[in-house]
Amino acid sequence: MDKIIITGNGPLHGEVRVAGAKNAALPIIAASLLSAEPLHIANVPDVRDIGTVLHLMQLLGANFERSGTDLSIDTSKVHSVHAPYELVKTIRASILLLGPLLARFGEADVSLPGGCAIGSRPVNEHIAGLAALGAEIHIESGYIKARAARLRGAHFAFDVPSVTATENLLMAAALAEGVTTLENCALEPEIGDLAQLLVAMGARIAGAGTGTIVIEGVPQLHGTAHRVPPDRIETGTFLAAAAATRGDIRVLETNPDFLHHVLGKLEQAGCQLEQGSDWIHLSTGGKRCKAVNIHTAPYPAFPTDMQAQFMALNALAEGSATVVENIFENRFMHVAELQRMGANIELQGHTAIVRGSERLQGAPVMATDLRASASLIIAALCADGETTIDRVYHLDRGYASIDVKLAELGAIIKRV
Ligand code: EPU
Predict the structure, then answer these.
(1) Cα–ligand 1 centroid distance for 267 (angstroms)
(2) pTM value surpassing 0.85
(3) Is the pLDDT assigned to residue 116 strictly greater than 80?
């Protein structure tokens, strides 16, 4: 099992290109099941979660070709609607196959994902939404079994705005008979991007990116080409790392529009920011950041996927701040690891009180989930001595070559 060893050595500086967004690419790959014609996708990140979901698609009978960051998927020969537990348990986003399989093939058997390191993560919204569209749906031996000769348009309001449940319902409704109105939808940019793809495939969708989405179902969709948008969380992660190390970096091939809240917090922390349509320049002037209060909430507020990275930034900042996690009940697993590196963090329920330290100390630590791994990397870059991060497969799920990119920015980092 790979480990990453980092020797803390001061500021990151230089340029870094971000990859396509994992959380945009996953629903796009699922959407390829909605049409028998091929889908050509550019800017697909080379991360493990994409490999896992493609493996799952292959089990269903899909064919794909991958060349660099280009991916073509052909689902014309899909012969199975069974997504097995062995794969689904390793990637919860497999739930995204449920809506498209049901809509195109009239049936889907998708394993319930089970537990997760960041919280219980129920899928009741996905199930209730598909039932509202007329699916017969029940749980049997750990599997969600859904059947519907053809889904019917309906009115459905989400109790909580869920990103993947909104995506699932959007895909399912695209092929349903009649009009579907979805209310209290999640607003994350990946949903607007999925809607753009579906429209290019022939779907009729209005209001994507707002709380209410109206979908007029069509009998079939066709193939198209699409480019995955830049990863806003990878962008934020590099910016937080540069801020924590008192560095100066330019992030390229990104989209600052998706990051208002995160950029605002970096400015509040004392960083200087400049941006263009597809780049962001962060400089700290060599100064230590100030601690900033964080409250995670659905987009466009501060993303839960950046909470761990800002926890590390605060642990090294001047002053103290609170970090409140409002999305996932257990997304503080990185705290105990950061404490092993000397971070002064006190947990009170969903709130972490962080008192900044000038330096942390290198230590052996363990990654517990994707974004937790990123926070340990940031802490290690600013620690005295060597930090060995175990279980970096969590990191590889969502960051493409982060060790190589950090080395190019001047970090002393190696993978063993
Ligand atoms: N929720 C329910 N019932 C449901 C679905 C969700 O109660 O049926 C609750 C969740 O428990 C949570 C809240 O709704 O409290 C929001 O969860 P959501 O469903 O939006 O999360 P998700 O769709 O499972 C996506 C991202 C996550 C990201 C969250 C929140 C993908 C593939 N995953 O997950 O990404 O943290 O939205 O923004 O898009 C990551 O990349 O590290 C990651 C975990």
Answers:
(1) 27
(2) yes
(3) no
